[in-house]
Records
---
Amino acid sequence: MKISIIFFVVLLAGTSAFAQQNIEFKAGNFKDDKEGYKKAVEAIKTADEYRSAGNESIYAVVSPKENFKMAIQRYKVAYQFNANSATLNFKLGNCYLYTNERYKALKFLEKAVKLNAEVDPFIEFYLGMAYQLEMEWSKATKYYKSFQSSSRSKQIASLGKMLAKRIRECKHGITLGSDKKRVWVDNVAEVNSEYDDYSPCVSMDGSMLMFTSNRENGKVSKSGYDWDHDIYVSYLENGEFTIPKNMGEQVNTPDNETTGMLSYDGTKLLMYKEVDGQFDIYESTLKGSKWVTMVSFSPQINTKDNQTFCSFNAKENKLYYINDRKKGEGNYGNDIYVSQVMDKKTRKYEFPNSAGNAVNTKFNEGSVYMHPKGDLMFFSSEGHNSMGGYDIFMSKRKQGQWSIPENLGWPINTPYDDHFFALTASEKYAYIASNRKGGKGGIDLYKISFWGPDKFHEIDTEDYLLASVANPIADVQIENAVQVNRKSLTVFKGKTVDALTNEPVEALIEILDNTTGKKIETITTNSATGKFLLSLNSGKNYGLAIKSKGYLFHSENFDIPKNSEYNLIDKTLKLKNVAVGSKIALRNVFYDVGKSTLRPESGSELNRLVKLMQDVPTLKVEISGHTDNMGSKTLNSKLSEDRAKSVVLYLTNKGIALDRLVAVGYGSAKPIASNESSEGRQENRRTEFEIKSN
């Protein structure tokens, strides 16, 4: 008898004079209930087949699918008949270790050993896994090494690379667990259920959360074991998320759908769905108030293999996704692949390539999320320096290559499965899914709150995050701030409405780099609500042109300095129609200081005015210059007039007839804001045009 097991049994039996008796499933033990015995044995026989198939999948580093769940369902039938079988308790413990309720495994394994210390040659291996989940690293390692030293080579070989991997995970756990990151990790109780709730997708401003759940919805899954997996949406109101709402038949079908990523502007939803046992990637688009029926990707993406969790990059010209084709870096499990778009209109993509051996391992990669900054990848993996299950990692793209991934650490990661990372633009909050102990059931959604600097650190050894509320750090010394070169985001959200009626207006928004005049992106506001959302990197001067048929174009200017902090701008943009009397301020027309000389970055704005005059040849407009009230009225009047004339000259040089234009300088006579503040004076320094006839 193994010494370690004897010692364990003695400890368990020390407080009781009587040990439970092991009652195995033998006909002689159940002479009084032969029918119940027969049903129990039949259930065990079927369950054994599922358990065997599940274990074989685990050793081969592929998904066990529903095998362990199906086994547990049948083992429970036998367990109700006889709960004191060491073998049955062992088998239940084995199965639970590979489900989203793995925290239940320990009690069955401990009971199995209590009933029979030598219940199965693999008992020490599974006890090691169960104690690893409890973060009892030394105890887990002890069982792993005892199994390693006393087991036959054939038994160890059947585990593939798993045994050595588990021992390494305990070493990683000791290191990661001793360096607690300064974060809060909170269960999002208002959206979670007793079922699996996973794969969160969050809008850039954090106001909308989409996720997948197999909660009760009236549709039984094809396996017959649980409910169909559908996509749900919840909105942040007064600091809490609303009751999740099923997104309806345009997105959810009788097949299983799973969220992948919500686009940065909130108008496209990537997902994957199962059809006839095959997983493919689809996209749904928000049109007005409804998400339209999903569209499949090209054959270059959706192959005969399984394509699952996916994410666009910042420019939406690359698709990153998980694929199970056996051509990955290690020829095992799921890898991250990337495909470049060739034609957005026809949705044609290049043949995908592996994301590389810096991120892909010989084990499974589970999900991928590309940060809108463009050079950060967050993904989950069973490999690298995981402390057990899936851990979340971050890799930074440098000189065309992905860096060695950094583990986000504890308590973001645990020995359980932690994945599906989604970050808000402020980088203060992220959402993950985990089957860790203490949830509402199955997989739950968790909110990560980063404390300290507003921005998420691009992992350095100097980075520290705030400890969980439940586990405060002992050392309260405040470290010096670390200067990190960041490309922070500004979220510009709002809606476009008619200036007179306040009714929503569908409009086209063009985002330009004022320095180069190049168009960065074009989006369309929602036709039903007029809403829009943009994420803008720091370090640029942006010009925004808002255009809608029948309305004067509207412009906005944002100068976001390099390394600026996160900003959230929420504006209602009122568009004016082309009726006589409509006027607009040209916010992206710039002059040299104190002069009327137009600066080069004014070209984009003025060219749009040229286009308007060309499109509506009957328009006659007044170009007016305005100043604040600082300085001489005479000089202000002359400067404003000279600036108006500079614009008129630009327009005539572009072919606009002079008799359609008039230049007027009003100086400080027509303020639109108070001159008592610098912000107000800046508003008053402007160039406008007004429609005089049409």
Note: The longest strand covers residues 278-287.
---
Amino acid sequence: MSTAFAPNSRPQGFAASSRLDRLAVRSHDLSKGNRRNVYVDNREFLVYHWSGKSSAFSPATGEQALGDDERINLGDHNCRVDVGVPYPYVAEMPSKRDGLELTAANWAKDYAFFLDHSPAEVYPDETIVGEFHWQLDEARFYKFPDEVYGLGFALRELGAGGISLAHTCPDLGIGLTLGWGGLLEKVRENRARFEGYGAADRVEYLDASEQVVLAIIRYVGRHADRAAELAAAETDPDQKRLYEKVAANCAAIATGAPATFEQAVQWIQLFQVVERINGHGNGYGRLDQLLIDFYRRDTAAGVLTREDARSLIAELFLKYGGNYFSFAGRNRELKDATNEVSWVGLEAYDMIGGYNHIGVMWHPEIDPAYYAYACDVVSRHGCGVPTLINYDVLRASELYSGYSEEDAWNVSYSGCQWYCAVGNEYSDHDLNCLVLVKPMQRAIDIAIRDGIQNFESFWRVYTEEVEKTAVALVAFKNKVYEWHPKVWPEMVTSLCMHGPIEHGRDVTDSPSVNNAFTSVNVLGVPNVVDSMFAIKKVVFEDRRFTLAQLREAMDVNWQGQEVMRQVMLNQEKFGNDLDGVDAMYVRVADQVLDTLEHKRNIKGFTFRPSLFQYMGHTYAGPMMGATPDGRRAEEPLAHGCNPMHGRNTAGITATANSLMKVDFSRFQGGSLQIELQPRFFDGKDNIGSFIEKFSRTYMAHGGVQINLNVIDLAQLQDAIVHPDKPEYQDIVVKVTGYSAHFVLLDREFQKEFVSRVNYAEV
């Protein structure tokens, strides 16, 4: 795309209308009023993604909900808008009235009832509508059978876990092309085909899918009816026109395909609502590619201006800023895919700011003006938006895992640090975990028992223990996969995937989509790296202490053993561009890669590691106890593949160099998390230019993702003590892969965040 499309001025180039300002106030007030909080059961869930309490994130209400004294608040990361009361029709749910069955038909009856009894709401000032107050797991019992739970608890003892739910990337282009009426016809045509084959199970699934689509059509239609009612009663002419516009758009897209840019944005918003009612949610793909044809057609016809489009996308962001959309990247011919909507989408965020999860996918041929603008936006808003991602590494990673060229080109950043082949992959990436500290601890105990005297023998024991954990993880995940389409199908997502309707099987089932690899977040890599390097040097080479002495010191959390702790602590540490310890980083990462990629799930696909875990490091430290790297038990573990807090002392460039020594094209993510203090930029004339040069260099050398905050550390420290100060209410930070208002985070998350290395120099 020509750089002539670049904004004329910044940052003052995009003034929001008074209408958008009012919508922004409402959106931010919902977050700051604790009405968008996401909860997890407890610290065990954060570490292992398996607690035994519920089968996904902790429901806010209902029979599986936990009290505030037990559950943990991740922050304002929820699409659901809390109204403070449970779903009022729980007792009338079909599964409560007629009995719960683990079938698609039973699930669809509950979903249709739930949607039919959820309000269709239209608020003043809105052009884009759609909001929900309860998720289905607050009304329908969501729990796997006991045999799954037994495997889960046993696996947790070995150091791994992970449930499966809604972390894929549907192809919204399917729905934008067909509309709900076209999707209904597609379901019916394929059902007729399977009826001819006598495939009763597939007919049953498509019968259920029909009920889901019909419920969605009714739900969208009720938004049209509600807007028409409001329009009839409205006396203000401007607001009346808005209601009439909403009524016309929702009536049009209830069954028909979107015909305009505005209707396409509305369709996307309502799809997200009806899908996220089903679960925690997905990424939603490449927004600029989804909307570009609508944009060009409407602007050519003179019915849409760039300013109109910017405001519409801003409204989409304000409905729920946590939706993961990506921009740029490459097209099918592997040319730069930056287009007019890439600019408009980024401008929309620049105009409203705050909480958001959009990402820009860089590659060497990206429109230079667009990428410079993206980095400028990062520098001015300071909260990790947009996330900067290396498209070429994402695509190479998919190809390495076994994706086809056709599926891999349409890869999209889809959440935290995960990514998917749009519409062609089922991913439960965010909810699997392997904690490397546990196998290392077992290896120490075995080595002491067996009298091992050299590091290579110790390393072999360690690899055997990682293998043992991985084997148990495979058994557990396969049992989950066996039950998943029965317990909690993802039927709305399935409608916008390539394969499920054609196969008559849910996206969680097999055969269904082209790709169903199991991605596994690996927790504790830097701590294991630092520990193994220190053990190798201090215990086996220098013979300063024995493994037994080391174990005894860790068991008492280094009390009375400060000399030993300092010796272990003062060895080379990962993150300082030191070849010795960084070679151990490569060895540890490659070993877990080799272990997992030789395992297969029951769908026929391999396991693949991600050097990331979103928040388990905060609580894993106390759960794991002290570690051989000199870390005390009360300290968190390192975040993802970022160096342990306080240990990368050689500056940001050295940290980046250390991370890049692993080939990220063979892994499924591993973000570089950066917290920069304002004084870092003292003497630098153009902060955005610095971020651009640094990120280009990092990604040109193989880095996969950068989450970059610009934060005042002293201000955040004070915000922990004085969270009610008005000046702190709007501070948004990129926590790990997700954003949140700082003052809404759990206190332990806040403490961990401010304890990270806050770089003050290069």
Note: The chain is about 50% helix and 10% strand.
---
Amino acid sequence: MKRILSTLLAVVMLVMLISACQPPEDAPGAANPAPAAADPAPADTAPTDTAPADTAPTDTAPTQEAPAEENPYAELGLVDGRFTETRHITVEVFDRGLDDQKTKPEDNYYSNWIKEGVLRDLNIEIEWITVPRWGEENEIVNLLAAGDTPDVCVTYNYPAIQEYGEMGGILDMSPYIDGYKELFPNLWDLLGEYNLHFNKDPEDGHIWAIEAIIANNSRINTFVREDWLAALNIPEPKTLAEFEAMLAAFKDNAETLLGADADKMIPFSLGSDVGWRANTLMNSFVPDSITDREVFIYGFDDRQFMFPNYKEGVRVLNKWYNDGLIWPDFSIYGAGDATEDNNSKAGFVGSFIHNWDYPYRNGEDSINSNLKRNFGDAAGFIAIDPFTNDSGVPRKFVEGSVDRKVFFPATNDEPLASMLYVDWISKVENRKYLQIGDEGVTHTVHDDGSIEIISALGTEYIQNSPQNIDYTITINGLDLGDDSLNGKSLVLSYAGIESRYVEKAYVAAQNESRIFPHYNVGAIEAESGMANPLKEKRDALLNQAVNASVADFDSVFDSGYDDYMASGGQAIIDARTAAYEQYFGSN
């Protein structure tokens, strides 16, 4: 009986409490009660039909929230994410020259579209600062040294960022990335913690640069003239020996393949950046047993020059050069020079190694489009995958989904405006438009929703870079905001190129990829200031070693290698070894 009475009493008290807290239906504010002042509801929270249990009913209209609560960023000069007073920032953009109908990067349809949109949405004026694409790694150092760097910078040269960061020349982005996270939803949605915190120092947490993302994480492919294989009845090479035999067949059948231009035959085209332009070949000589620890310690050179057995790949190139299979002028023309591409467009080249989609870039002026116009529909370069390692695997070494580095110099006096700009350019609607443009002008939409790029050659809508990556600085590659749509559209995103070429290239580039692990050990002091000097020594060594006689190859390579190690390479290896063991042990 006592238990029953206790239960009844509790029920009665609960009913009375609820009745006391429930305002009458006709009371002011009953349908939309004011939230407790100490815990304001978010702006996007739907109103409830009843007041919270601890909120007393009121006979007056709900009190308006204080302006600071309505707009917590008023002190930053922001209302609804837009500055109340116009801000001005300078933004770096790569200049690729005006060849192939390219436009001025600081004054074209897309650069002006961005300026108008950022001024409209953020009340920020953009001033473009051009930096040559080829040689930008040196130019960014010059700008930092002169204190004349744009507010928003883009580079591939992270060691330079580290060096100047240690000297106080780079702004710490962490207070903005993490402290005002809610102001940058597009940036966080696109890059996530992995890319935003990729360079976060493990000791004090500073972030000197964020990493752009690669939408289609493919690196390098080997290409061969498909019509030349057919003309000589040669199957696609699947081994190094078969590839070399194919090159010899191209040379021996120059008159058959080129007729009166037989003397212009180039079985294999190579560029002065040998480490990049022979990467798939070099990777095949690296033991498959290389550990993640070794990849970190020796992977500071992005051409994998320090990986074990690399020399033997260079030896193959040296043999091909002395056999007359490699373009003899490869070391003369630097990055950005059109001579090598023009040889391919003219039909003189049988094979080369390059970026995974290189023959299909630039629409109607792509290498493949030129070949088809000049030599018929059967002409074109197709991707193959012939170089296998000691385990029979066509290995590719690929960094995680990171690309260019976006950073702010210490001279930037508008860091918040700069961050909001980077967020704006990361918004899916904005980056999608920059990548594909207007329907009916630069792309068409298929029934399944996939996007096919159409040529903009000869119009103001031509893009200076693939998918306008010079403007979409936080992403490299096609991203339409839908994974399924991305996959279907990727093969259609090269104007005038048959989708089978792109499909085959994408599969080959992805085949047996090994992603570099990321070990965040902070700055490696031994790397400070060494990126460009070591790069120059590496490139000079590789060019000299390929050009050497067979008899002199070992002495040329070894002397250059010893100089590279003595000039800072060994110090970096030692420092990376120590840093790895400090944070991750000796295993």
Note: Residues 243 and 275 are 19 Å apart (CA to CA).
